[in-house]
Design goal:
It comes from Sphingopyxis panaciterrulae. There is one protein chain. The protein has two domains: 82-93 and 165-367, Alpha-Beta Complex (Fumarylacetoacetate hydrolase, domain 2), CATH 3.90.850.10; 95-160, no CATH class. 26% of the residues lie in helices and 27% in strands. It is built from eleven helices and 18 strands. The strands form three sheets. Strands 1, 2, 3, 4, 5, 6, 7, 10, 11, 13 and 16 form an eleven-stranded mixed β-sheet that branches. Helix 3 packs antiparallel against helix 4 (114-131) and helix 3 (95-107) packs antiparallel against helix 6 (154-160). The longest helix has 18 residues, at 114-131. The radius of gyration is 20 Å and the shape is globular. The two termini are 36 Å apart.
Length: 374
Amino acid sequence: MTLPFTPDWLPDDWRSARLLGRIETADGPTPVLVAGGIVHDMSAVAPTVAALVEARAFDAGAGHAIGPLDDLAPTLALLSPIDLQCVKAAGVTFALSAVERVIEERARGDAAAAGAIRAALEARVGASIRSVVPGTDAAAALKEALIGEGLWSQYLEVAIGPDAEIFTKSPVLSTVGAGGDIGVRSDSTWNNPEPEIVLVADPDGRAVGATLGNDVNLRDFEGRSALLLGKAKDNNASCAIGPFIRLFGDDFGMDDVRGAVVDLTIDGPEGYRLEGRSAMDQISRDPEELLRQAMSEHHYPDGFVLFLGTLFAPTQDRDEPGRGFTHKVGDLVRIAEPRLGALVNRVRTSAEAPAWTRGIGALMRNLARRGLLN
């Protein structure tokens, strides 16, 4: 069941921010721009968010004013703020997450074995990996030392090697917005949210803004084999983005992304509570470098979004000592950053979460009926 949109999901300074997003109206999915606290329907300017970004058509005056955002909030049906963009993600971009991926690999997806492996591995490589800059001579020397000690891992390769891990998280139009249910596979026994900042890029790979994302991850599947990454990452309702894209400008830019601190809160149905934090100044690769590697030799005619990775690695026990954290149906997940707002979702299994049924064909038919494709 969709959670109702509330004003506390908005950035602290939302009245002065420019926010790009999508809402569900009686006609269908509609791109909107919030400027000066007023919601503007931008569908007559461009029918999709991707088209608005490509044209950089961010003049609210060219749209149709719907009304004040705080007045509309109780009835506003938020959708994921992206539509036709490819959904990409960068993995293992923080040293701590690199260590956790190695632990998953060595534990073969068994949460009970993770504690002892974590202690031993951090004692051997924790400090070294935290201080090295990926792709440098020092990183190459650390790699050789780790190989010599029998500690090398494919995850350490992307953590300190020259090439970042960039993968496709989910299909176009499949992402869930703020308030929607997020899904984990019903056969997963070790999984977690991944609270991240998401950059929104135009077809040339230039970032126009940022939002929040949840790169839901199945630690048991990926831990058994990295070749199961697709099954660990791409499932029904397994990718949440929102609530809005904050557009870059004089009041917010890439340096704000670099200095952001993302807070995570999980409230379980049994009274369990977990809190975590991901500080972007701890990232191993600069966001612009990750954008460059994501663009690479690709072509994204509708642009793309890029999850930047997370420092958060949940090790706090939930049920049994030594087994760490895993989701339960009914968990309320809140990912928040003061300048970007809050992405709030409730956990269900991917099998029980609302099915993804509105794809590219359905969107094009809807826009054609509305006369928005001319």
